[in-house]
Amino acid sequence: FTYSSGTIGSNTALYNIHLFNVSISNGYNISQVKSIYYNGTVKAVGDIYSSATLTALNELGSTKYRVIGKKLIHYDDDASIDIQTPRMRLFQTDKAPVTVKADTGHLDGDLTILDLYDNAEIFRPAQAATETQPASLRMLASSSYFKVFINDDIIETDKPLTLEQGMSIMNSTAGGTFNNVDQSMRLSGQVKGRIERAPKGAQ
User: Fold this and answer.
1) Cα separation of 92 and 183, whole Å?
2) CB 107 within 8 A of CB 113
3) Cβ-count burial of 99 within 10 angstroms (0-12 exposed, 13-18 middle, 19+ buried)?
4) Contact criterion met (CB below 8 Å) for 119 and 102
5) Segment 145-169, tens digit of pLDDT
6) Is 177 exposed, middle or buried (0-12, 13-18, 19+ CB in 10 A)?
7) What pairing do the DSSP bridges indicate for beta strands 139-149 and 2-5?
8) What pLDDT, in 10s, does the model give residues 96-105?
């Protein structure tokens, strides 16, 4: 094992498993492996899924969020899930869907917190004005880490963050919080940047 990311000693810690001289029964190949068993002091089992999708619905039966990944590893001991190249899409009625992505992710066993590590981004496309919503500019927030509080529709980080909205760009030293309900971003720490006037017809 080699450490990858997260907090060592907690269930957010991610490790890379390096396998050598693997023997596979005749008629099978390594891509068909479905689980890994660790027979150490603390025993563990990890189930492996390729190109998996997790979807949750709101009380009206509409999609609230969707999580996809190139590969998912499910751990039986705490029901948590490690995700390679996670992509999460958050939906709000009458608003543009928000996409959150990173290189790696960890979803807790209660499906309430998604930790995203390395090249993490929050993206909202531009949206034209509607009868119920004003126009919104394209938004991109970038950081090394984001924590998604799924049930609260909140995404936050305490790491340095870059926020682009339209032609404006801001940098914060202590991260910020994105509220998906009203799709607003609040920056923390020292904030510097450039604010450009929005094009006519956009907010």
Assistant:
1) 9
2) yes
3) middle
4) yes
5) 999 999 899 999 999 999 999 889 9
6) middle
7) unpaired
8) 889 999 999 9
